[in-house]
């Protein structure tokens, strides 16, 4: 016995059924294409507007200079030293101030050592930390440690994505 006879196929594929299946309503198609186009345009616009920062994370220790100025010393890997320069923004997060809130202090890189230490580590001096505490905040003391986030790039998300396609190996 054949699986489908010709008569069964003709009944299933009637002209009325073919018309309904082959011609979706034009209003739904236009609305769908328009909605998808708007969503894509909004995503591209947001990708060009929103910044996507890149950081280098490094351990940091607070020190006191001879003049009483509080500085910090960050340990940067040798491979990352070409990405940093004097004056670059540094967010310092100290373990002693870690209470779950946003206690990152803003500072800047002042000097970069020219001698590579053991294990390929280079010391970077960070200045601009407050010497005194403000009301309700604990004082910063020499010997405190934490993590430094050095801002190395602040490009838009769209720029980063297109940069990946431009620099593809050939």
Automatic annotation (TrEMBL):
Regions that span the bilayer: 28-50
Keyword list, A-Z: Membrane, Transmembrane, Transmembrane helix
Top-level taxon of the source organism: Bacteria
Protein name (record): HlyD family secretion protein
